[in-house]
Design goal:
Strand content of chain B: over 45%
Shape of chain B: globular
Structural class of chain B: mainly beta
Number of helices of chain A: 0
Oligomer: heterodimer
Strand content of chain A: over 45%
Helix content of chain A: under 10%
Helix content of chain B: under 10%
Shape of chain A: globular
Largest sheet of chain A: 7 strands, mixed
Radius of gyration of chain A: 13 Å
Largest sheet of chain B: 6 strands, mixed
Order of helices and strands of chain A: EEEEEEEEEEE
Number of helices of chain B: 0
């Protein structure tokens, strides 16, 4: 079982470059999330999606865009990367079967460095 | 706004001793509470959750957690620590009325170091 797969796992960008992180899940989950993890700050929600074709902002959405054209994929884009976006990015997904009691399933993370 | 606090950045314990990792949550309704563990260079893995019912919940790898409504706490415990338990632990909360995001809010994390 693949679960949640993130690509790429590592990337180094220069300030101003753009890139897209891909998250794919094979569990037929409705909800998908992008978090960033920074030392001492835990995980902060960037954007999320409650279904195919829908996205919404989380706590720290500035500088990021997302798309969910297919149910199994959730893309996170950086249009013009900044050093403050150096972080580890985690994608997660969840089923809506358990009326919000279900746990999140996480990918392995994508480490992004912006120089 | 929903939030959780993990007051300790790091917890050190000797192998074989009991361990506790603390978590408190903000008061607003009846929360759903979760614990996750993160090993180096890996994603977060679910350990256990409290939804309703018995205040003591048991989870993976011998961990358990006690929900205490009066103290608004959800501390993670294990009777006998193993070196392999060394990892980063996150507490998280979701409130049933948060029907918009349906997301988890995470604490800042506590690093558990178990010494041989």
């Amino acid at each position: 079982n693949a679960g949640v797969t993130q690509t790429p796992k590592f990337r180094v960008l220069k300030t101003g470059q753009s890139m897209t992180l891909l998250c794919a899940q094979d569990m037929n989950h409705e909800y998908m999330y992008w978090y960033r993890q920074d030392p001492g700050m835990g995980l902060r929600l960037i954007h999320y999606s409650v279904g195919e074709g829908t996205t919404a902002k989380g706590e720290v959405p500035d500088g990021y865009n997302v798309s969910r054209l297919k149910k199994q994929n959730f893309l996170l884009g950086l249009e013009s990367a900044a050093p403050s976006q150096t972080s580890v990015y985690f994608c997660a997904s969840r089923s809506n079967r358990d009326r919000d009691t279900g746990e999140l399933f996480f990918g392995e993370g994508s480490r992004l460095t912006v120089l | 706004a929903q939030s959780v606090a993990q007051p300790e950045d790091q917890v050190n314990v000797a192998e074989g001793n009991p361990l506790t990792v603390k978590c408190t949550y903000s008061v607003s309704g009846n929360p759903y509470l979760f614990w996750y563990v993160q090993y180096p260079n890996r994603g977060l893995q679910f350990l256990l959750k409290y939804i309703t019912g018995d205040n003591l919940v048991k989870g993976s790898y011998g961990f358990e957690a006690e929900f205490n409504k009066s103290q608004t706490s959800f501390h993670l415990k294990k009777p006998s620590a193993l070196v392999s338990d060394s990892a980063l632990y996150f507490c998280a909360v979701r409130y049933p009325l948060d029907t918009g995001r349906r997301a988890l809010t995470f604490g800042s994390g506590t690093r558990l170091q178990v010494q041989p």
